[in-house]
Amino acid sequence: MKILKFGGTSVGDAPSISAVLAIVKKSYAAGERPLVVLSAMAGVTNLLTKMAEDAAAGQSFQADLKRVEERHFAIVKELMAVKYQNPVYTKLKLFFNEIEDLLQGIYALRELSPQSKDLIVSFGERCSNFMVSKIAAQDIPEALYIDASHYVKTDSNFGQAHVNESLTDQLITALAHAHADNLLFVTGFIGSNEKGRITTLGRGGSDYTAAIFGSVLNAEAIEIWTDVNGMLTADPRIVKKAFSLPVLSYTEAMELSYFGAKVIYPPTMIPAFLKKIPIVIRNTFDPHFPGTIIQFDAGKTTLPIKGISSIAESSVINLAGSGMIGKSGFSGRLFTLLAREQINVVLITQSSSEHSITFAVNPDDALKAVKLIEMEFELELQANKLVQPTVEDNLSVLAIVGENMKKTPGMSGRLFYALGRNGINVRAIAQGSSEYNISVIINKVDLAKALNAVHDAFFAELKKTLYVFNLGTGNIGSTLFKQLEKQHEFLSEQNDVEIKVVGVSNSRKMYFDVDGINLSSWEGTLEGAGEVADLGTFIEKMKALNLPNCVFVDNTASKLPATYYEDIFKANISIVTCNKIANSGTFEQYKKLRDTARKHGVDFFYETNVGAGLPIVRVLKDLMLSGDQIIRIEAILSGTISYIFNNFKGDASFYDVVKKAQELGYTEPDPRDDLGGIDFMRKMLILARDAGHEIESEDVDLGAILPASCLAATSVEAFYAELLRENKFFEDLKERAASANKVIRYIGKLEHGKVAIALELVDENHPFYALSGSDNIISFTTERYKDRPLVVKGPGAGAEVTAAGVFADLVNVGA
Ligand SMILES: NC(=O)C1=CN([C@@H]2O[C@H](COP(=O)(O)OP(=O)(O)OC[C@H]3O[C@@H](n4cnc5c(N)ncnc54)[C@H](O)[C@@H]3O)[C@@H](O)[C@H]2O)C=CC1
Ligand SMILES: N[C@@H](CC=O)C(=O)O
Ligand code: NA
């Protein structure tokens, strides 16, 4: 047989009770002969307690009593055929009259004893079980109401009575014998002492009743039906990706619950543990979901840990003293003292030098604990053998739990890597000797971020979420959003990566949504709901949200974002950028950014700084990392100029092809940056630096394409006007090349640490002769690629290929 226990929310209203009865009937129809244990209707226990306290305080309780009565009556009315209703109303009315008499007595005496309180709250379970048994009896005549106070015998510790096991055992065995054919509805939570006075079993009392009956009757399982899908890997209110665990061992369930998973209160389950009866946590409102089985062993699982739990509020007390700590007997005295005063010690760590002990307690107990220590160790403090204890507040405890940890090396490494990478400082660490639990103390402000980061780190088969803050919604930014939206499903389903854009800004507006901005309608959202853009505020907000796996994407051409990069790395946020400004500033800045990113364990990816989406930065990095030596780099790295000289033929004027290059999205927002060579210079500078050269922009020998008058233009319009005016200059150039059977190329070279960029006319034997469109080409001559260089070639400008490069960098963050 099985025990089916339903909590208060499962009997909270008529639809819930119908759901309960559907589950019970299904089990009964399958021949399972379950024993049902019900709690009081949701909220009723609290109301009964309040009424008793109000009565004792001389306040009126009638209105509340009426509410409780009406809630029960309404259920009878809704769920029972009229012909069965009357006797049920009558019995319930008797219960309510009894409650009223008791409350009147308390009111008159202005006194509420623990004994009367237990008696009053016992009516919650009595009413619900009686009522539901009668509703069930309409279809199952064997349904029978059982007042457990006749069978669960306890001492007289009202409010938290201890069960007399042998007597209870006898009584329940006899009850089961006498009613072998009945469907019993047993009141949870209540018992009675030797005089027959009603007692209650304390926190989790109905679970306890279920465990007691299950244990005595050797149930095959105890099903605890509640309103969640079993025990989850973490608190789903904080960790959206938390999922239900199919199997847990008793020990794992204990550890998880100890640190906050509120589904069951494990001490009440001990009778079941002792008899190795499985406990199954199931959801009344999702009865097809299998829920969580809590059993003797941890079950077969590939999960490295079972869950992450936490205590949000914790204080830490530090004790130190060379003359004291480590001496045998000290910790004994300390923890005996705390236990005697009922101060719960959440975790303890002792330094290896044994000159200090750190332990965590509930914040409400911290000052009391310090006072007690000062009293107990007064002499030692006076003799300076012990330093004055200190308290740290606003801390949280996070624990990873699982029996598998013992067998799997590297679990703590994974935990600390996830915390470290996200900039979460660990105050103290404790590993239980059982190795079922590793706990860390962290700052309270970091708790949500830590839970999510650690959850991602351990449940790798789940999706990794990247939280993106994107700056710039122009040519590249808007194309990136299109690509992200299109690829969302594939990434999520095939690659377990989810990219959530949670912040977006252009130069006018900014908008945030931690649940992820809908990328099919971002424009309207930003326009309609966005606030006035301010980069400083944007970055402050990004930091304040303190999200795990966070990436800042710079899709602007602005100088301003680079001034914040260092600060962003310091907040443990990775950066992906197509903006070349930061890397082509001073060498000092270039170096500082890398050092800071490395120090904070975050990524700095900028593949699109050179050759848009073409793999150039990555290739160079791999060559360097693998110990190759760069002898020479020759390259065409301006997509715009490449396009111009590939199309500046026939009748097309120079002016026309430049205009066209801009229309096609190849140019920088300001095309003077391309034609003036600045953009190319930046790329060569970045490559030279990545190749290990300490070089500044002034060191680059930059040959011009344009006549001086075009370079002097002070606006884009004036620039285009100059291009028109200088038409002859460009036609002459075209003619010179054509007559020599050559093509015009703007080529950059890095050799011996020197960078030069110059306009050249090349013939068909030159490797850079055959290019088309916006092609870039780069040839690396290295120690290993000496005879035939390593060449990368392809479109090196344009929104699609650039956004794709940013996208690829993004997916690689944290990989
Ligand atoms: N077009 C291409 O083929 C390639 C472009 N890139 C780089 O992509 C970057 C973006 O280029 P486009 O999208 O063409 O530029 P764009 O002019 O179309 O867009 C720039 C965006 O940045 C925003 N912005 C500017 N300053 C801002 C600030 N302080 N705060 C917030 N937002 C700001 C603007 O409002 C706009 O939304 C440039 O750095 C460029 O060098 C890199 C590789 C290739
Ligand atoms: N404007 C640039 C775009 C890539 O960085 C170019 O033309 O190469
Ligand atoms: Na690239």
TrEMBL record:
A Gene Ontology biological process term: lysine biosynthetic process via diaminopimelate
Transmembrane segments: none
Domain called ACT: residue spans: 400-478
Enzyme nomenclature, EC number: 1.1.1.3, 2.7.2.4
Metal-binding is among the record's keywords: yes
Any one Gene Ontology molecular-function term assigned to this protein's record: metal ion binding
Catalytic activity: L-homoserine + NAD(+) = L-aspartate 4-semialdehyde + NADH + H(+); L-homoserine + NADP(+) = L-aspartate 4-semialdehyde + NADPH + H(+); L-aspartate + ATP = 4-phospho-L-aspartate + ADP
Pathway: Amino-acid biosynthesis; L-lysine biosynthesis via DAP pathway; (S)-tetrahydrodipicolinate from L-aspartate: step 1/4; Amino-acid biosynthesis; L-methionine biosynthesis via de novo pathway; L-homoserine from L-aspartate: step 3/3; Amino-acid biosynthesis; L-threonine biosynthesis; L-threonine from L-aspartate: step 1/5; Amino-acid biosynthesis; L-threonine biosynthesis; L-threonine from L-aspartate: step 3/5
Cofactor: a metal cation
Keyword line: Amino-acid biosynthesis, ATP-binding, Kinase, Lysine biosynthesis, Metal-binding, Methionine biosynthesis, Multifunctional enzyme, NAD, NADP, Nucleotide-binding, Oxidoreductase, Sodium, Threonine biosynthesis, Transferase
Entries under InterPro entries matching the protein: AceGlu_kinase-like_sf (IPR036393), ACT-like_dom_sf (IPR045865), ACT_Aspartokinase (IPR054352), ACT_dom (IPR002912), AK-HD (IPR049638), Asp/Glu/Uridylate_kinase (IPR001048), Asp/hSer_DH_NAD-bd (IPR005106), Asp_kinase (IPR001341)
Known role: Bifunctional aspartate kinase and homoserine dehydrogenase that catalyzes the first and the third steps toward the synthesis of lysine, methionine and threonine from aspartate.
Quaternary structure (record): Homotetramer.
Stated name of the protein: Bifunctional aspartate kinase/homoserine dehydrogenase I
